[in-house]
Every structure is written in structure tokens, then in C-alpha cells.
């Protein structure tokens, strides 16, 4: 095997210019793959952390995914029955036996839960009225399933307990109302109940919807405001392993009957965009590697054509068809390996260069640069594709060389 490797290296070194062009083609393909993949992965990770991770991983709601079956459907499940104009039955909203359900869910390792009650309210300060969504929660539980405490720029969640009718609102909502920390406002629910509430905290998530339209208070306070004593309408879940959210949500819904939505389901449209982005990335970088593979195919085909007599002599000396095939296949693999190594170095240089670029913009999350992912798996995937494309490009000329008849070749040369 060492002899075959030395022969392959010698054949490549005698055509240095063509070999260098092929290696550089593979290297550029690998480098662009690494740079683009790092950009895409960095943006997607940032999006998940800043947008998706703001939400709980699973939301259990006080509703069913499908309407309850009607009597005629139960009586004739296989009949040709068509129903129309069925009015929904009136039911008391709220998750039944929420405490027992949370105890069952928290018995699962790596799962944390928090009960909440959400409802609409009108916040009034002076002559200004703003409609908001109020979430009632228990701070000790809620901090385990939400990033609200991290997003607070003024006040703390514990102030909700130490202050009567305390309220935490978003920075955009505070600007709309013209209030500051410590101000007292009036909250009016759709049931006509009004409470005087004190601003004990202001948060900023960077999401306009939350910052402009959300408020948080104690669960008991919101139950009084919404006139729904001892009622919760959602259970929020957070998992240590976020990838298991979809499967667990389906299990919860099958067991309890309550509609359970994972973060994948809530953001399915956005995740579809990520799939399209990745498809574009693989297509562009794959095209570059394909062009480089044609370069390797060209150089090895040329070597086979020029070394026809040498191949015949090697076969006459005892080299088998498998040895000859390995000889030219190794040349493609060597070119691919050199291109992969050089491409990884160039890719890292491109990542470091992109990391130095700054934009004259400021986002709520404080990012004014490219979001780059430093993941060794990106380098591994790029190198694998480079080796694979180079090896495939070398297969055809290698098989052609292995099938050469030494007798005919030497006789033709003579």
C-alpha cells in the first residue's frame, strides 16, 4: 500500500499546476461552505435564543384541538353523515385538576411547569388607555419556565410579592402610558372589575409584541381582576432537552386531552424558512464543490491518458486491477484531503474576518455584527463532502485505468 501511495503522490507532484488548481477549487468550496454555514447557524441559534427561547417550550391550554364529537357521529361512526351549523357548547374555561397534572408532568426528569392565567385588561393612566394582555403567575415557578427575570431592566419579580397589586410591564407599554417605576395605574378587566396597580418592574425582550402589549402580576391578583377565582387557563412547560418538546406535547395531549403546543408547532412557519435557507446554502456550496470535482476528474483522466504505458508496465509487473484502481483513486482522495485541510484553514480565516465587521445599527439585543457559530461539526461536514466529491470524481478514470489491457497497450506502443 505504501508503494501505491508513493506512486500516486509522484504522479500528482509532476503536474503541480493542475493539482494546485484542483486543490484550490476544493479549498474554496470548503471555505465558503464553512463561512456560509457559520453565518446561517449563528443566525438560527440567535433566533431560537432571542425569539423562541423567550417562550415556554410547551404550552398546555384549556381547550381541545378538535370539537367534541356529536351524538350522531358517535351513533354512526362509519355513516355518510354531514353536520353543519353546530354551535359550540358553553363550558367553563380553565384547566381542570391543574395541580394534579403539574405533579404528573414534573415527575418527568428535566421538566418544569408553571400555572398561569392570561386575560385582557385596559390600563389607564391619566387620560391614556391602553389594551394589554395580563399574565398572572407564581414568581417561584414562573422563573423556571421563562426568561422574564433576565429581561428585567428595572425592578425584580420578588417585588410582586412585597407590593400590593404589583405589575410588571414592557418598556414599550411604559412609554405608551408615560409611566415609570413606582407609578400607580388603574387596570380594568372585561368583567368590569378595576384595581389600582403599582408598577414594580419594567422588562425589555426585544420583541415588539411583548414589550408593547404584555404585563405580569401575581396569579391571585389576576384571578381577582379577571373574576376567575382559582382558575388557570395555561400550564407552561420548560425542558432541559428542547428537542424533545414536540414528542412530549403529543403525549400530554393524548393523555389529558388538553391542547398542547410545542415551540416547534408555534413557530412552524419560521422553522420552514430555516429549512429553505439550509437548502440554498447546500446548493450553492455544493455547486462550488461540484466544479472542483470536475477539476479533479479532468486531471486524473489526463494522468490516465498520459500514463497508459506506465499502467501496462505496472500490470505486467504484477499489479492487479484493484491496485491500479486504488492508485488513481488515492490521487483524487489526496487532492480532496489537501483541499479540505486548506479549506478549513481558509474557512476559519473567513469567520475571523467576518467577526470583525461592525454595522452602524443597534438592536434591542445589542448585536451590531455578524452572528457566527463556531461549531466543529461544520468543519467536519465540509471536509466530508470535499473528500466524498473528490473520491467520486476519481472513480471513473480509476476504473478506466484498471480495465486497460497491458498486452494491447505495449503492442500498440511497439
How would you concisely characterize the structure shown here?
The chain has 414 residues and is an alpha+beta fold. It contains 17 helices and ten strands. Helix 2 (16-52) packs antiparallel against helix 16 (376-402), helix 13 (268-306) runs parallel beside helix 16 (376-402) and helix 14 packs across helix 17 (406-413).
Mind explaining what this structure looks like?
The protein has 414 residues and is an alpha+beta fold. It is built from 17 helices and 10 strands. Strands 2-3-8-5-7-6 form a 6-stranded mixed barrel. The protein is elongated, with a radius of gyration of 33 Å. The mean pLDDT is 81.
Write the layout of secondary structure elements.
Elements: H1 2-13, H2 16-52, E1 58-61, H3 71-75, H4 98-106, E2 111-125, E3 128-137, H5 139-142, H6 148-151, E4 152-155, H7 159-162, E5 166-170, H8 171-177, E6 184-188, E7 194-203, H9 208-213, E8 214-218, H10 219-225, E9 234-239, H11 245-256, E10 260-262, H12 263-266, H13 268-306, H14 308-316, H15 321-355, H16 376-402, H17 406-413
Helix pairs in contact: 1-15, 2-13, 2-15, 2-16, 13-15, 13-16, 14-17, 15-16
Give me the count of strands: 10
Give the uncertain stretches in residue-range form.
none
Q: How confident overall, as mean pLDDT?
A: 81
Distance N terminus to C terminus? 31 Å
The DSSP helix count reads 17
Structural class comes to alpha+beta
Assign an overall shape.
elongated
DSSP helix fraction: 55-70%
Biggest sheet strand line-up: 2-3-8-5-7-6
What sequence of helices (H) and strands (E) makes up the elements? HHEHHEEHHEHEHEEHEHEHEHHHHHH
> What amount of the residues lies in strands?
15-25%
Main β-sheet description: 6 strands, mixed, barrel
Amino acid at each position: 500500500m505504501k508503494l501505491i501511495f508513493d506512486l500516486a503522490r509522484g504522479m500528482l507532484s509532476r503536474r503541480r499546476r493542475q493539482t494546485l488548481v484542483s486543490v484550490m477549487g476544493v479549498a474554496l468550496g470548503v471555505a465558503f461552505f464553512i463561512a456560509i454555514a457559520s453565518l446561517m447557524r449563528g443566525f438560527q441559534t440567535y433566533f431560537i435564543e432571542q425569539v423562541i427561547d423567550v417562550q415556554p417550550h410547551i404550552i398546555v391550554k384549556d381547550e381541545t384541538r378538535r370539537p367534541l364529537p356529536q351524538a350522531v357521529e358517535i351513533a354512526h361512526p362509519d355513516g355518510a353523515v354531514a353536520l353543519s351549523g353546530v354551535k359550540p357548547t358553553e363550558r367553563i374555561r380553565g384547566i381542570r385538576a391543574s395541580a394534579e397534572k403539574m405533579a404528573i408532568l414534573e415527575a418527568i426528569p428535566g421538566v418544569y411547569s408553571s400555572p398561569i392565567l392570561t386575560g385582557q385588561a385596559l390600563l389607564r393612566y391619566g387620560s391614556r388607555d391602553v389594551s394589554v394582555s395580563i399574565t398572572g403567575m407564581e414568581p417561584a415557578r414562573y422563573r423556571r419556565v421563562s426568561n422574564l427575570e433576565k429581561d428585567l431592566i428595572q425592578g425584580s419579580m420578588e417585588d410582586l410579592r412585597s407590593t400590593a397589586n404589583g405589575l410588571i410591564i414592557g418598556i414599550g407599554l411604559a412609554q405608551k402610558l408615560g409611566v415609570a417605576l413606582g407609578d400607580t395605574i388603574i387596570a380594568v378587566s372585561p368583567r368590569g372589575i378595576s384595581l389600582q396597580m403599582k408598577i414594580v418592574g419594567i422588562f425589555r425582550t426585544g420583541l415588539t409584541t411583548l414589550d408593547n402589549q404584555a404585563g405580569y402580576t401575581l396569579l391571585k391578583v389576576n384571578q381577582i381582576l379577571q373574576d376567575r377565582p382559582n382558575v388557570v387557563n395555561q400550564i407552561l412547560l420548560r425542558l432541559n432537552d428542547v428537542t424533545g418538546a414536540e414528542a412530549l406535547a403529543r403525549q400530554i395531549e393524548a393523555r389529558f386531552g388538553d391542547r398542547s403546543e410545542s415551540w416547534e408547532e408555534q413557530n412552524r412557519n419560521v422553522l420552514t424558512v430555516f429549512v429553505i435557507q439550509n437548502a440554498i446554502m447546500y446548493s450553492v456550496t455544493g455547486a462550488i464543490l461540484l466544479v472542483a470535482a470536475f477539476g479533479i476528474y479532468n486531471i486524473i483522466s489526463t494522468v490516465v491518458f498520459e500514463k497508459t504505458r506506465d499502467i501496462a508496465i505496472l500490470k505486467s509487473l504484477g499489479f492487479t486491477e484493484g491496485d491500479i484502481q486504488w492508485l488513481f483513486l488515492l490521487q483524487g482522495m489526496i487532492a480532496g484531503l489537501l483541499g479540505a485541510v486548506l479549506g478549513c484553514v481558509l474557512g476559519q480565516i473567513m469567520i475571523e474576518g467576518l467577526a470583525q465587521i461592525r454595522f452602524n445599527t443597534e438592536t434591542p439585543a445589542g448585536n451590531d455584527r455578524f452572528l457566527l457559530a463556531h461549531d466543529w461539526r461544520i468543519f467536519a461536514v465540509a471536509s466530508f463532502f470535499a473528500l466524498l466529491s473528490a473520491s467520486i470524481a476519481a472513480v471513473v478514470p480509476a476504473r478506466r485505468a484498471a480495465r486497460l489491457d497491458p498486452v494491447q497497450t505495449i503492442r500498440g506502443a511497439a
